[in-house]
Design brief:
Structural class: mainly alpha
Number of domains: 1
Number of helices: 3
Number of strands: 0
Oligomer: single chain
Strand content: under 5%
Order of helices and strands: HHH
Shape: rod-shaped
């Protein structure tokens, strides 16, 4: 397999992983937002809270907010990568397909049957 094919396949795999992870994190952030909203509503609906109830609610809210912050931060870090893939996906695919066609035409015209690995081996690279 050529290096171009190998790295193109790896890029597509990373792209799929990034998209999947962003979707998963977005869903998780939504779940956490709903949980935070529920905690706030529970606080508003409860006429009076004793010390034990207050502590339990505060601890749950603090933990949920911390989880949400981490998820949101991770999404923020992945956004430039996702943007890079989404903005360049069509260009990359078009240029790679053009290069594959050109490579095939050249190899056919010149009857080149060896691979890059064989060239490296022959030249001790």
């Amino acid at each position: 397999m050529s290096f171009g094919h190998k790295y193109y396949a790896e890029l597509k795999e990373v792209q799929a992983t990034v998209y999947e992870l962003c979707d998963k994190l977005s869903g998780l952030q939504s779940v956490l937002d709903k949980k935070i909203s529920k905690i706030y509503h529970d606080i508003e609906r409860t006429p009076e809270l004793d010390v034990d109830q207050s502590y339990i609610i505060m601890k749950d809210l603090k933990e949920t907010l911390a989880y949400r912050r981490v998820v949101k931060d991770e999404l923020k870090l992945l956004q430039p990568v996702r943007y890079l893939f989404s903005e360049n996906e069509e260009t990359l695919e078009t240029q790679f397909n053009r290069a594959v066609r050109y490579s095939y035409d050249i190899r056919e015209a010149l009857n080149a049957q060896i691979t890059i690995e064989e060239v490296f081996e022959a030249l001790n690279v």
